[in-house]
């Protein structure tokens, strides 16, 4: 450690000129990432001024008229955007609760299985949906839940639901539940890996001692396994909240249709549609909606990170 | 460790004998649910695979899951793929994009990870810069405007450069290089090797565990990606990756089935093309499963 410190002091003590002369190859290695970050991440950050302009491509950032908060006022006084916020919040809540617990329950169940072979094969099978492309997953679900699709038939026969195209259903929790189920289907296996690993770290001695005292396997699961992985669960939960708005809404673009916008439109899809959805592009409105999402995401990330540091003693950054 | 595990197994085996009725019920329930989850994970793919070998006409008339080729086993769907120039073109594009994207992304992440692991004046500011981009992004439209200004809209560059690296990958590679024993760097330095040869000949082979996780994530991500193409090359069909072609075929089919005289072969082709698109990943999966799993556990990234 002491050695490392003196080395660090080494580069700090030298002047830029001496450093560049001595180690120019190393500094050259920084060029790609600096270019990449500046052009593709930092320039767009300045580009958000367009959310406060009536941006037109011909006029560019500097000559487009400045309109202040007009687009934000339009967003919140209209009907579509508040509706998109409601849908986003609903889907995010479902994912942070049921969607979050599903892989944990799956991992706990795997831990109760004694046959190594059975466990390994089921795990491998459960990973598969995670590697199937979004376009394919969505087209499969669209087919399966269409009128007379296999899943629709199952729902009709077993639960007596009406035979219908479920993705055309614009009643309130239907699309949210389908989207949640799709996410669980895709992620339950892959999402359980961390928990399976954590469970396998739990000391065998504890289980042994409890078993000697006559604890059943279920009791040991509740009294030993779950408390042991709890810190990690808390951390993952907090991370989940932090990223709840940032990712995972692009699949909706492949599933929704104008007649279901009232339940399926989210801030992300709204942002996309205003700019790239075909028809006239309203870049400024889209940028305003995107900025709103970015800001809320950032607040959630920083907040959840602080919470994680407090609650679990570990944080992302 | 091994002894401990053996001991635990022994214990669990002993327990079989004095298991209570309640334990047995739990056992059955757990096995059934896990088996169900596993089956549900693969059945849709099996349905597609079997549909792709079916006869188009019988398939269209069939209702429910296809667990076995209906109307006899045919490879008609696969023959149709080879006659469809947009599918072949999309496939070739996807292969090219995946190779370029993965190579460029891996190189940038590696070089940056190495540079960050060495002592320099840029270490701190660049790390900070990377952190900021993890926290805040300008959003879709401002990013589009920058790429438009560079002149990449409507070119493959917009598909292979943006997103090919990120702060996470760079920091993961930095950690990997930090994990290489210092003696190796010193020895290399004493031998008179420069940074480039130290990086590629000495350090990178040691950091390849993490490197391969990044390569796999990049390759699978690009292979399955459709959104950037829908933003940057929506009207240039020659540049479409396979996923965008699939999206068009499947969404067109939805309308098409309502027409009075649907074309069976077009219905069939969507199953064959889906199988063609996921085959490389499924076939290679056994070889990279362990690596990806370890990657998730170590790096905490979700593939």
The chain-level mean pLDDT of chain B equals 87
The 3D shape of chain A can be described as flat
Number of helical regions of chain A: 16
Taken from the alpha-carbon principal axes, the silhouette of chain B is: globular
CATH homology superfamily of the largest domain in chain A: MetI-like
Describe the structure.
The complex is a heterodimer of chains A (317) and B (303). By secondary structure, chain A is mainly α. Chain A folds into 2 domains: 1-38, no CATH class; 78-312, Orthogonal Bundle (MetI-like fold), CATH 1.10.3720.10. Chain A has helices spanning 2-13, 16-29, 31-47, 60-63, 70-77, 80-111, 116-131, 134-144, 150-159, 172-191, 193-201, 204-212, 217-242, 261-264, 267-276, 283-312. In chain A, helix 6 runs parallel beside helix 10, helix 7 crosses helix 10 (172-191) and helix 15 (267-276) packs antiparallel against helix 16. With 303 residues, chain B is mainly α. Chain B has a domain at 86-232: MetI-like fold (Orthogonal Bundle). Helix content of chain B is 76%, strand content 0%. Chains A and B meet through helix 1, helix 2, helix 3, helix 6 and helix 7 of A and helix 1, helix 2, helix 5, helix 6 and helix 7 of B.
Topology:
The complex is a heterodimer of chains A (317) and B (303).
Chain A: H1 2-13, H2 16-29, H3 31-47, H4 60-63, H5 70-77, H6 80-111, H7 116-131, H8 134-144, H9 150-159, H10 172-191, H11 193-201, H12 204-212, H13 217-242, H14 261-264, H15 267-276, H16 283-312
Helix pairs in contact in A: 5-16, 6-10, 6-11, 6-13, 6-15, 7-10, 13-16, 15-16
Chain B: H1 2-17, H2 21-52, H3 56-61, H4 76-83, H5 85-117, H6 123-135, H7 140-150, H8 157-160, H9 167-178, H10 182-190, H11 195-223, H12 227-232, H13 242-256, H14 264-299
Helix pairs in contact in B: 2-14, 4-14, 5-9, 5-11, 5-13, 9-11, 10-11, 11-14, 13-14
Task: Summarize this entry quickly.
The complex is a heterodimer of chains A (317) and B (303). Chain A is mainly alpha-helical.
């Amino acid at each position: 450690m002491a050695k490392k410190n003196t080395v660090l002091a080494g580069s700090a003590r030298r002047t830029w000129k001496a450093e560049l002369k001595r180690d120019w190859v190393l500094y050259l290695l920084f060029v790609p990432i600096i270019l990449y970050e500046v052009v593709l991440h930092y320039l767009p950050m300045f580009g958000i001024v367009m959310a406060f302009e009536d941006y037109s491509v011909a006029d560019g950032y500097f000559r487009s008229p400045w309109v202040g908060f007009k687009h934000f006022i339009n967003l919140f006084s209209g009907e579509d955007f508040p509706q998109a916020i409601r849908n986003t919040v609903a889907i995010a809540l479902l994912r942070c609760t049921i969607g979050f617990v599903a892989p944990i329950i799956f991992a706990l169940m795997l831990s109760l299985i004694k046959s190594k072979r059975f466990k390994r094969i089921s795990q491998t099978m459960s990973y598969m949906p995670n590697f199937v492309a979004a376009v394919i997953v969505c087209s499969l679900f669209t087919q399966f839940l269409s009128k007379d699709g296999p899943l629709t038939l199952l729902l009709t026969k077993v639960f007596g639901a009406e035979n219908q195209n479920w993705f055309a259903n614009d009643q309130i929790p239907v699309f949210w539940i389908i989207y949640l189920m799709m996410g669980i289907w895709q992620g339950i296996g892959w999402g359980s890996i961390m928990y399976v690993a954590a469970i396998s770290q739990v000391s065998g001695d504890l289980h042994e001692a409890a078993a000697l005292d006559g604890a059943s396997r279920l009791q040991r699961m509740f009294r030993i396994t779950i408390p042991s992985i709890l810190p990690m669960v808390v951390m993952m939960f907090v991370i989940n909240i932090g990223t709840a708005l940032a990712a995972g809404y692009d699949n909706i673009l492949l599933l929704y249709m104008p007649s279901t916008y009232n339940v399926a439109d989210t801030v992300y899809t709204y942002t996309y549609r205003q700019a790239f959805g075909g028809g006239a592009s309203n870049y400024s409105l889209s940028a305003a909606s995107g900025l709103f999402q970015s800001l809320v995401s950032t607040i959630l990330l920083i907040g959840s990170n602080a919470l994680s540091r407090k609650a679990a003693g570990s944080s992302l950054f | 460790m091994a002894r401990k595990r053996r001991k635990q197994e022994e214990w669990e085996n002993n327990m079989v004998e004095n298991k209570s009725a309640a334990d047995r019920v739990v056992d059955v329930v757990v096995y059934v649910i896990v088996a169900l989850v596993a089956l549900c994970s693969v059945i849709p793919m099996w349905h597609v695979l079997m549909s792709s070998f079916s006869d188009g006409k019988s398939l269209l008339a069939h209702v429910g899951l296809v667990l076995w080729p209906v109307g006899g086993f045919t490879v008609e769907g696969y023959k149709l793929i080879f006659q469809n120039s947009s599918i072949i073109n999309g496939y070739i594009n996807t292969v090219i994009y995946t190779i370029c994207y993965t190579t460029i992304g891996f190189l940038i992440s590696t070089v940056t990870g190495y540079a960050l692991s060495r002592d320099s004046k840029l270490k701190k500011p660049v790390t900070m810069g990377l952190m900021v981009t993890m926290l805040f992004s300008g959003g879709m439209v401002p990013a589009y405007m920058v790429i438009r200004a560079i002149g990449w809209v409507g070119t493959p560059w917009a598909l292979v450069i943006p997103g090919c690296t990120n702060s996470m990958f760079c920091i993961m590679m930095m950690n990997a290089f930090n994990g290489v024993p210092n003696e190796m760097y010193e020895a290399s330095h004493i031998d008179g090797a420069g940074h480039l040869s130290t990086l590629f000949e000495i350090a990178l082979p040691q950091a390849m565990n993490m490197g391969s996780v990044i390569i796999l994530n990049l390759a699978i991500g690009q292979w399955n990606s459709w959104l950037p193409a829908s933003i940057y090359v929506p009207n240039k069909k020659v540049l479409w990756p396979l996923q965008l072609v699939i999206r068009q075929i499947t969404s067109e089919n939805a309308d098409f089935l309502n027409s009075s005289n649907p074309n069976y072969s077009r219905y069939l082709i969507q199953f064959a093309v889906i199988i063609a698109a996921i085959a490389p990943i499924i076939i290679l999966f056994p070889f990279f499963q362990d690596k990806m799993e370890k990657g998730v556990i170590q790096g905490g990234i979700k593939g």
